[in-house]
Amino acid sequence: MAKPVVAIVGRPNVGKSTLFNRVAGKRISIVEDYPGVTRDRIYTEAEWLNNVFTLIDTGGIEPESKETILAQMRRQAEIAIETADVIIFLVDGREGLTGTDREVASMLRKAKKPVILTINKVDTLEHSPYYYDFFELGMNEPIEISSSSALNIGDLLDAVVAHFPDDKGNKEEDEMIKVAIIGKPNVGKSSIINYILGEDRVIVSDIAGTTRDAIDTPFTDGEDKYLLIDTAGVRRKSKIKENIERYSVIRSFTAVDRADVCLLVIDATEGVTEQDKKIAGYSHENGKGMVIVINKWDIIQKETNTMKEFTKTVRNELAYLDYAPILFVSALSGQRMEKILDTVKFVANQNALRIPTGGLNEIIGEAVLLNQPPSDKGKRLKIFYATQAAVKPPTFILFVNDKELMHFSYLRYIENQIRQSYGFEGTPIRFILREREKGGK
User: Fold this and answer.
1) 16 annotated to a ligand binding site
2) pTM
3) Is residue 166 domain-resident?
4) 209 is in an annotated binding site
5) DSSP 133-198
6) pLDDT of residue 39
7) Which residues form a coiled coil (predicted)?
């Protein structure tokens, strides 16, 4: 199931970033950093009372602008309304109610989403002198906090998670291969979706109205059931053109959360962009299967080794996705389009692949004999035993004598040996290191 999305909205200088960092600092489960993954401070994963959610800091979304504060706030509110399950509306308890607060509150009341009015910079147990003024906004009773001193942050998060859905998913959806079409706007995602949902598919229904305004389309292909998560055509009817890519990034994050396999669509005429890196990095970090689709290949001027050179460039730009298959297609002409769904099915199976413990340990044993583990100050790394702990993504536990002796390069070597034997094409692999004394339990 997708992680719920929580957005912090508020005018400048009310403490959005401080609250964002405070909640992010409470994270229990920290995603490991992988080399080459482009990060952006507009989002983070957070956890409270065993509820994991994606937190968005809208204060970091807008570039510098000469437009009015009210126009900037309107944009932030639009992002929150479009993407969030719960909205934290942050106001300033020292300055009191402003006209901008009233305008934003008016927009949020129409959002039909839970909004938690939060008064920041209240550093004592006494009410803010403006506390009762904020009732004018017509929202529920406000929560008073201090982001800087962490006062009442727990009460705020209790209120946030109370709005999360109780259901843990449904069996029918769990049996489907969930496919998210991700990438920049105007790269041909809609055309690819239309091809996948061609006349030879059985379209069950269109389900509109998820909290992110995406369109979910279940369909079957032979015996296989799929759920297509389409964010390609989702656009706010807004004149604010320059923010469409930011909207697209956040929509893609939520689509990735729900997917088994992501189709990253890249425009062959543009190559890999910074936005592609953000979305691809998020998918990689979250252990999703990945297929890279280079669209509009028909309009590229071809010379000897053009495809080979383009592949090399993509691999360099997205080095952490070296496991992902690359398809060169044209949605316009239909070139190689028939390979997409077959590749999706293959990658979904690889992402859910479980291998025998005996075979796994045999591979690692041979790898150690071929290439001695690293050592430091006379002490050498020993790998006693390995087992697969999970799938989606495939996750392996390595029992070792000292975790500090495991260099990244040697772990990558072990990964490559496993891939050579079992494939795992299109899926990241995770490793968990546990220390165990030799002969211990």
Assistant:
1) yes
2) 0.65
3) no
4) no
5) GGGGG--SPPEE-BTTTTBTHHHHHHHHHTTS-S----HHHHTSEEEEEES-TTSSHHHHHHHHT-
6) 32
7) none
